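User: Hey, quick favor. My workstation is busy. Could you predict this chain's structure for me?
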Amino acid sequence: AGTISTPGALETRNLGGQVRIRRVRLGFEGSIPGGFDYVVEADFANSNVAFGNVYAGYSPPGTGLKLRLGNFE
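Assistant: No problem, here it is.
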């Protein structure tokens, strides 16, 4: 973000301000009853969308094991 202002006597022109976002990263994660969970992360940059972690997981109750399917880092 940026803004431009001029000294007192030169305030006849308002050059204003500007906001530009270079990159936005959004992510969601949660769990579903029964031992299921999910993660989705998307990166928006340079008019492109790239996905980072996108997976679903399952943990059978009482086993200590975890199964994940998808793209994860």
